[in-house]
Amino acid sequence: MKKFLAVFGFNLAFLIILLIALEIWVGADYRKRFPDVDRPIQVLYPPNPINGFEDPGFSCEIPPDEFRILCLGASTSKWANYPAFIAWAFQGLPWMQEKKLKVKAYSTGFEAHTSLDSYYKYKYLYEGYDFDLIVVYHGINELRANNCPPEMFQDDYSHFSYYSILNRVVRLMDIPVLNRSFLAFKVVLKWGEFIRKRIEKLNPQSFVPTHEPLQGWLEYGKDVRSADVFRGNLENILELAKERSQLVLLMTFAYVIPEGYSQESFKAGALGYGCEMDIGVPVELYGRSENVRKGLEIHNGVMLDMAEEYECYFVDQAELMDENLDYFIDVCHFSREGITHFAVNIARYFLGREIR
After folding, report:
1. Quick one: fold of 46-151+219-349?
2. Counts of helices then strands in the chain (DSSP H, E)
3. 152-197 pLDDT, tens digit each
4. Helix or strand or coil: residue 277?
5. pTM score
6. First vs last C-alpha separation in the chain
7. 195-216 CB burial, b ≥16 within 10 A, e <16
8. Residue 327, SS3?
9. DSSP run (H or E) holding 247
């Protein structure tokens, strides 16, 4: 028995030492490739110039002379220097001037991300960080999830290969012992990628395409199944904000699809958008134009419902931007004039609403 315990103890000690060595090695490899990363989740959502984690002055507590905003969104919250315009608009508020507060705005914005990404980022990346205001602006990227057969749709968007892997990793983040382990992160990530490849090998159409939807599936986009998922993600964000005692501004999603829209006329720059640019994207990236319009109206209704239910701040950007072509470079991304107007709409709302 003593011999058995000795062998068992030796093997256990060896295994622990091996795991520690692997953890150090894997962690060092990730930190070499991602110098500013100190947590596994940041490999998926790495530090960048707008999300705060490359700012040496970005600390958990808000400095007394600072007013801090976190913008949760996607590419619209990244393009056109969105955080800078939000900060500029707030900086001009009389009560901000009176209190001599310097406004800092950060954004989680990234192409194609949805409200689910924003919930994950807010929950895991910004745990322990305080903000005066959380600004939520989402609506269009979720619509891509509807372009698939009904039986394929998943409530956690795992019918996208990206989310099928991400959701596995996120479940790891809820395990206190493992959520800081780069080794555990790598094992889950590689396992998720292995499963994805196996599934795709068996059936190439197992997932919704990452980029443009399949032509044969566009008809399914008329059923806005994403609305309930969108509502759930917003509820999760709002509940987390309540738990953290942070105020939230919800906004409807502004867009414009001109009469007579076609992909050909868009590519030809013949629709009258304020600035015809190569970076603009056609509506078809999200689905058929009539389905996109329908879906955005439904999602905007969800946003309004959430604002009323949680009694949070609310700006109807869809109405205020008024489908003005001068404000857009495509269906949803802003021109310089558009982002200026968008930011001013928010500032006007807070003219008589002092937060601090």
Report:
1. Rossmann fold (3.40.50)
2. 12, 5
3. 999 999 999 999 999 999 998 888 888 889 888 888 888 888 888 8
4. coil
5. 0.93
6. 68
7. ebeeeeeeeeeebbeeeebeee
8. helix
9. strand 247-251
Of 298, 332, 349, the residue nearest 77 (C-alpha): 332
d(CA 11, CA 17): 10
Exposed / middle / buried, residue 33 (Cβ in 10 Å: 0-12, 13-18, 19+)? exposed
Please report which helix (H) or strand (E) contains residue 166, including its range: helix 161-173
| Residue 322 phi, psi dihedral angles, 5° rounding | 55, 35
Q: How far is CA 26 from CA 185, 296, 307, 336, in A?
A: 10, 43, 43, 43
Let me know: does 126 contact 74? Beta carbons within 8 Å.
no
Instruction: Show the tokens assigned to 256.
Output: 């414009």
Where do the domains of the chain lie? 1-33, 46-151+219-349
Sheet holding 102-107, edge to edge: 102-107, 66-72, 133-136, 247-251, 313-315
For the record, the structure tokens of 238 come out as 């709002």
Q: What is the CA radius of gyration of the chain?
A: 23
Total residues belonging to the chain: 356
In one-letter notation, the amino acid at residue 216 is G
Q: Say what the pLDDT of residue 269 is.
A: 87
Q: Which amino acid is at 143?
A: L
- Beta-strand ranges (E) seen in 48-148 are 66-72, 102-107, 133-136
110-138 pLDDT, tens digit per residue, is: 999 999 999 999 999 999 999 999 999 99
Q: What tens digit of pLDDT does each residue of 299-320 get?
A: 999 999 999 999 999 999 999 9
Reading the block at residue 91, the tokens are: 């900086």
**Average pLDDT of 265-287?**
85
